[in-house]
Amino acid sequence: MLFMMIVKASKNSEAGNLPNPELIESMTKYNEALVKAGVRVAAKGLHPSSNGIRLSYPEPGGKPVLTAGPFPETAELVAGFFLIDVKSRKEAIEWAMRMPDPQGHGEGQIELRQVFEAPGQTSKHL
To answer: End-to-end alpha-carbon separation of the chain, Å?
Structure first.
């Protein structure tokens, strides 16, 4: 089963503030544990929304409207993600619970979401 652990943005991540060395070390160890367990598919951090572009479709069938960042609502933004391939929802939750505070300022928030897979397709075959 594929799950995405979505690391939500914060004021610090949107300001481009990098984590302190202790958090970087903790996240490195966490990443190594995911790899060693054979569950990590991908993991990436994202640039702040000031470097982003949002496409919206205000009219059905209409052309998209482009809006350049930054975007004001950090609660709606993503700072990074981990894609993991696990045997169950319970295992995905266990891995998410092991992640250090991804922001390191008491602002961390992780959203765990299962990824749709094609019928009959198992995630190990992606």
So the answer is: 11
Q: What is the pLDDT of residues 1-57, one digit of tens each?
A: 999 999 999 888 898 888 889 999 999 999 999 999 999 999 999 999 999 999 999
Q: Domain boundaries in the chain?
A: 2-118
**pTM reported for the whole predicted model:** 0.86
CATH of 2-118, one of 3.30.479.30, 3.30.70.1060, 3.10.290.10, 3.40.50.2000: 3.30.70.1060
